[in-house]
Please model this.
Amino acid sequence: MDPVTNFEKYTVAPGQWQDEPVMVLRDNGSGSIAMIAPGLGSNCVSWTIQYEAQEVAVIETPNSPQVLRDRASRAGVPVLFPFPGRVRDARYSYRGKEYQLPANDKSGVHHIHGVVLNTGWEVGEYGSSEEGASLTLQVGPQNLLPDFHQGYPFDFLLSLRFVLRERRLIYNITLENREKDTPIPFGFGIHPYFKVPLIPNEVAPDRSDCPVQISARTHWPAPDGIPTGPAQPLPEDKNFSEMRRLGTEAFDDMFGDAFYQDGWTVASYQSPGTGLETRIRADQNFQDWVLFTPPNRPSLAIEPYTCPPNAINSAPEGLPGSNLLTLDPGQTWQAQVVLEVL
Model:
């Protein structure tokens, strides 16, 4: 396909980011530009918009491709499948069989964030139309590193179709179960690191002054990133069900019982002094949220999950509300997440 498309307003073309191959989606009318790195787990390593004649970074871009090779969930927008969050002891049992995943979290004990963010994805169709600049990337078991494939040895095809239009980046997610007779277990999430505030100023010099809202009613007790009991009513200091200042507290918190308006669960943060609000909308497949404040970095991760961490082990551990999904052979699952700046 011709990398420069027929619609002059929107273009999609191969490019380079510090010598790393990327696909560059552009809305030439609004000046919005997104860079997706297929070889780095389909990570959106950059998304910028135009605001008052200046280029503004929405996503915290990694310092280099090597940062993501060393730690794939470090920055950008990592894709989390089939296990968003941690899996206790990097082990799980499914249909009477035990599986061992790489113990790749900081502790070296647990697995974290699934099997597709450490590998290269295949570039599918790309082009433009009235809806915007679009790109499809796909990954399957043939793309996985051996120890990740061993830990999740199911036949699947995961496709992401990105659409960029104005100040909106859409993730259209499709999963196919290509097994002949085995349902596959899974969850899905994305891990966007947003630049916060979008434009530092006297009103909001750092992220502590940015109001945050998350459409969730409960909080998971998870001191080590893995739920230890049922989700609880929101404590006052972690209640973001209505917009409130983030403050200086460090967060790595899991929220459950997402609530919806017009079919979407929504989280957002505001950049005071600019009138800009960054919003994440996820459809009704998504039941949980994670809020993470990376230490000593001007960013904020607000992550929509279809299930809480360790959902694959919730039933054996006696925890309710796992929201673990399964997909029957030959069936397809679809979901959507929208990132937008208003």
